[in-house]
Amino acid sequence: MFRGDSEALHTDIRIVLERLAPHVYLDDIVGKIKGFYARGKISLNHALAEVVIAHYLRAQGFKHVDVEHNIAPRIVCDVYGELERGKLCVEIEYGFVPPEYATEPNSYLRARIAKKIATISQHVDILAFAIPPHYIPPIPLILLRPPCTRSRSRRGLSDLISLIKRFYPDSDIEATEKILTRAEIGFFLIVDIDRGKVAKLTPQQMEILLTTIDSFLT
Q1: Tell me: the pLDDT tens digits for 14-53?
Q2: Segment 187-202, tens digit of pLDDT
Q3: From CA 11, how far away is CA 212, in angstroms rounded?
């Protein structure tokens, strides 16, 4: 639970809104976020990111923009929108790791993100991830490459499925592998709360970031 000071949230949202273009209507989004925050369903960081992303999507022409949107039973999308290409879900990632996995945070996050991709991608047409500038998510590289091609090898998927099974033993592994074979990430959004700015990255650009970081560690 993230129950906190609703007045503080109101003040922080007002500050963030002052950094955004004023012509985008967000009263419905802000009202819903305040309700979820008051019930302890979302954290302050998450709430402010949802405001900025919802603003970005509406400014880009997306319709039916919503937050904490149910896309299937027990499956909630952080920020939802629709375009001609279909339904979009933007998932916000800040890199939280439970204490029990403190000794292997990257492995846990890779498994968590892969499982999220498998869970959500089958219910929307476009899946995207939003991250702050200070966090580069350890996305499995195989899922940044085109689906149903040689670059998404069976061995690579098998290794990833084994990782998911280690952290999520109750997952339907057979179904997960089939979904991950064809699952695709549409894009990434870097969300700068400080400046109220959003930058869009392709999966290929994200792969460059990840491989560059890895090159310094090998």
Answers
A1: 999 999 999 999 999 999 999 999 999 999 999 999 999 9
A2: 999 999 999 999 999 9
A3: 39
Asked if residue 1 is part of any domain, the answer here is no
93 lies in some domain = yes
**Per-residue pLDDT tens digits for 73-98:** 999 999 999 998 899 999 999 999 99
Q: Is residue 142 domain-resident?
A: yes
Residue 28 included in any domain = yes
Q: What is the 3-state secondary structure (H, E, C) of 151-215?
A: CCCHHHHHHHHHHHHHHCCCCCHHHHHHHHHHCCEEEEEEEECCCCEEEEECHHHHHHHHHHHHH
Q: How many domains does the chain have?
A: 1
For helices 27-38 and 6-18, the axis angle rounded to 10 degrees is: 150
**Token pair belonging to 97:** 């790791």
Q: Which amino acid is at 147?
A: P
| Three-class secondary structure of residue 216 per DSSP | helix
Domain that holds residue 101: 6-217
CA atoms within 13 A on the CB side of 84: 1
Enter the pTM of the model: 0.94
Q: Are 51 and 29 in contact (CB under 8 A)?
A: yes
Which of 138, 139, 125, 129 has the alpha carbon at shortest distance from 183?
Answer: 125
